[in-house]
Amino acid sequence: MYNQWTQEQNSFNVAINADKPMRWKADIAASVDQYNCWFITFAPSAFRETRGRTVEKVRQDLDTTLHLRNLTPAVLMTHPAVLSTLRMSTAPPLARDRLIGLAQVPSSLVDVLERGKLPSRMPEALLAQALSRLCEIIIRLVDEDLFPWLVAQYEPTEADQQRTATVIADRLCGSLADPIIRNAQESRQLALITQFLGSHGYSQARSDSYTLLSDMPGGTFSIRRNIPVGSIKRVNIPVDVIIQPHRPTPNRLPILIETKSAGDFTNTNKRRKEEATKIRQLRDEYGEATQLILFLCGYFNTGYLGYEAAEGLDWVWEHRIEELLLLELAQ
């Protein structure tokens, strides 16, 4: 299957790793080691930085509610984003779905509120009722060990406030640990590619320097740009990196790169269809010569690699970033 894919692709693309299954296991081991080394060294600092910002947000949210002594529908109406802090103020802390079920509110309401917005189509009377039920559940389940002043009825000290905010921030960050690590890894991978391209004479394209992919200037790259696809309904597909080689191909299609990192094998297998869907949409729009290259670091097993190869995708391992030059990127 892999050889057939390679023969078909070689008519317009250079195969890098998809046609070399004999190297996959060694590359997987090297990539897992690289990810684990990064995680041990840098993940704690990324988590601490996010935790520090979260503590400040929690402090502001608690100030808004007078440290839960003034939790009313009117407060939620004015400051809907405090709800994420309120969910972590209960015993036990409440996941979104659990709060939705207990308060019997529409499934989308909690998500909208935590994004700092109010539902645009919900009648005002129904919204007021829903916010009232949310407040009732939070107050009923409040963690009294975190908010002892609610029972003893005293003014919380600065130490009380900081202690409570820190615990709630830890709860919030614990529920968001994976996204925090993913975001830190993605930023690091993009910075690594940017540095690599810069060392080979590439400059970052201005956002207004091109509209069509084929108009992208040679020797430039873009980070996190949307690409329109679809003949009937136009949608934007986000692409992490777009590179127009110094010597563009005759069709002037740039190279597209998707950064991927993973801290375990399970999630990669669950999400492996995403890239296959993306490349099919891109090739339907821009032709079979479209190249979407995966830039991999972490836990990607042979099942994942085989699936992506069968779907016409190739990849470059982060621990061999120089293989990007096989895409004819050199000056």
What this model shows, in words?
With 331 residues, this protein is of the alpha/beta class. It has 2 domains: 2-43 and 179-327, Trna Endonuclease, Chain: A, domain 1 (3-Layer(aba) Sandwich), CATH 3.40.1350.10; 47-176, no CATH class. Helices cover 51% and strands 13% of the residues. The protein is built from 13 helices and 6 strands. The protein has helices at 2-9, 24-64, 73-78, 83-87, 96-103, 109-114, 124-141, 148-152, 158-175, 177-199, 265-270, 272-286, 302-310; strands at residues 203-204, 220-229, 235-244, 255-262, 291-298, 314-317. A 6-stranded mixed beta sheet has the order 1-2-3-4-5-6. The protein is elongated, with a radius of gyration of 25 Å. The protein starts with a helix and ends in a 14-residue tail after the last strand. Mean pLDDT is 88; it is low at 1-12.
What percent of residues adopt helix (DSSP H or I)? 40-55%
- Mean pLDDT level: 88
Amino- and carboxy-terminal Cα gap: 34 Å
Radius of gyration: 25 Å
Descriptive terms for the model:
alpha/beta, 2 domains, 13 helices, six-stranded mixed beta sheet, disordered N terminus, Trna Endonuclease, Chain: A, domain 1, 331 residues
Q: Topology of this protein?
A:
Elements: H1 2-9, H2 24-64, H3 73-78, H4 83-87, H5 96-103, H6 109-114, H7 124-141, H8 148-152, H9 158-175, H10 177-199, E1 203-204, E2 220-229, E3 235-244, E4 255-262, H11 265-270, H12 272-286, E5 291-298, H13 302-310, E6 314-317
Parallel strand pairs: 1-2, 4-5, 5-6
Antiparallel strand pairs: 2-3, 3-4
Helix pairs in contact: 2-9, 2-10, 5-7
